[in-house]
Amino acid sequence: MKQYYIAGNWKMHRTIAESVELAKELVAKLEGSSSKIMIAPAFTSLAAVATVLKGSNVLLGAQNMGPEEQGAHTGEISPAMLKDAGVSVVILGHSERRHSYLETDELINKKLLLALKHGLEPILCVGETLAEREGGNLESVVRTQVVEGLKGVAETELAKVIIAYEPVWAIGTGKTATPEDADAVHAYIRRVLKELYSEKSAVAMTIQYGGSVKPENAAELMAKANIDGALVGGASLKAESFVPIVNFYK
Question: Among 94, 103, 128, 186, which one carries the catalytic annotation?
Answer without folding.
Answer: 94
